[in-house]
Design goal:
Layout: E1 2-6, E2 9-15, H1 23-34, E3 54-60, E4 68-75, E5 82-83, H2 89-92, H3 95-101, E6 111-118, E7 123-130, E8 160-164, E9 183-186, E10 192-199, E11 203-208, H4 220-224, H5 227-243, E12 256-261, E13 269-274, H6 285-295, E14 313-320, E15 323-332, E16 335-343, E17 345-350, E18 354-356, E19 373-375
């Protein structure tokens, strides 16, 4: 097991072969490892927040065109759910470093490019990390130190370059699952609010801040404490789930509700994102990519609010509470045809995490070193 930071998220990464094959048993093991359900997750590795309650499961891919398969699991501090239906671009940035650390990938040059499939949705990305030769040795290792900074993480690290191959319609049936760039959704009082429902890696419902009597620059704590706003967004989210062809999303982590406003800090557009019931301190990788797509697409709710730039190749800085998230786009004929971004990752620790023997139905495959647990 390696505890990794990926982008602005954090969680343990496991080899699939080190976890139970039975999914129900595996989920119980992950819940025990993370310490859920408990608000602080004090009996596990979780950090008491959805962004630090994530798990990565990695294995060699059976597909010829893919090197590594990645299954993302979203846990919650206070719940017993283990959701594996959505993507996480932040945790994705730690997959290749983990694959090298665990021996799945053996670097043979100063940079290592790996094709990764997120099995949750079939999303495929080409990820490049730095793997220089270790001084005084013949082997290579992941370089974590570097000069790349990302908002929401202190300090600088080595860059992780991610280029996405097929992000449109990751969970929803298509990029614009309603067939429209602009729709109306019913508010709890029966009135209507305009929205763009879009999925270019992450299903989002985009809403104008002013339509919710907001500026878009509110502090995350103020938004989270506004019970009327939270209830309104959940009402809209449930309606949007059906409109977007995803059915009842009551127990799902998608679609994400994203409030947008004109930029105020030199970026392309300002955002406040709910994930879905907690306000994100920044914005998710794939959510930022989807917002950038909407901002570059004429007819969406985001387009007239944004400074989406010009030219076929452009970089949009998506403003969020912690700063800005740069997204690289290739736009042709008012359509985003390619997208990418740069994140950072870091190995925080490596070792074993212990879970109660009663949860693990099969005997340990390694010598136990703790009287109460099975090592994995």
């Amino acid at each position: 097991m390696c505890l990794m930071r990926g982008g602005t998220s954090r969680g343990p990464f496991f080899l699939a072969s080190d976890l139970p094959a039975n999914i129900e048993t595996r989920n119980q093991v992950l819940l025990a490892a993370m310490g859920s359900p408990h608000p602080l997750q004090v009996d596990g590795l979780g950090g008491g927040h959805p962004l630090t309650s994530k798990v990565g499961i990695v294995s060699p891919s059976p597909l010829d065109e893919v090197d590594v398969d990645f299954e993302f699991a979203q846990l919650q501090p206070n719940e017993t759910s283990v959701q594996t239906t959505a993507n996480c671009g932040n945790m994705l940035s730690a997959v290749v470093p983990f694959a090298v650390e665990s021996g799945l990938i053996i670097p043979d040059s100063d940079s290592t490019e790996v094709t990764v499939r997120t099995t949750n949705t079939g999303l495929i990305a080409t990820i490049t990390i730095q793997t220089p030769r270790v001084p005084g040795r013949n082997d290579r290792a992941v370089r974590y130190e570097g000069a790349t900074a990302i908002d929401g993480v202190a300090g600088t690290s080595s860059p992780v370059s991610i280029m996405f191959v097929n992000t449109a319609g990751s969970i929803a049936p298509s990029l614009l699952p309603t067939g429209n760039r602009l729709d109306s959704l019913p508010l709890p009082d029966g009135s209507q609010i305009e929205a763009t429902m879009i999925d270019n890696g992450q299903p989002l419902v985009l809403l104008r801040a002013e339509d919710l009597r907001l500026s878009g620059s509110e502090e995350t704590t103020d938004l989270a404490s506004d019970s009327t706003l939270v209830n309104t967004l959940e009402h809209l989210r449930l309606v949007a789930g059906h409109r977007m062809g995803m059915g009842d999303v009551t127990d799902k982590s998608y679609p994400k509700m994203t409030i947008i406003a004109p930029p105020t800090d030199g970026g392309a557009i300002k955002t406040r994102s709910f994930i879905p019931h907690t306000v994100h301190p920044s914005i998710g990788v794939l959510a930022a990519l989807t917002v950038a797509t909407a901002a570059s697409t004429d007819g969406t709710i985001a387009f007239p609010l944004s400074d989406s730039g010009e030219g076929e190749l452009r970089t949009l800085d998506i403003e969020h509470p912690s700063g800005a998230f740069p997204v690289d786009l290739q736009v042709r004929d008012n359509e985003v045809i390619r997208s990418g971004l740069t994140r950072t990752a870091r190995l925080l620790m490596a070792g074993q995490v212990f879970v109660p023997r009663s949860i693990w139905n099969s005997p340990p495959t390694k010598n136990p070193t703790h009287s109460e647990g099975t090592q994995r």
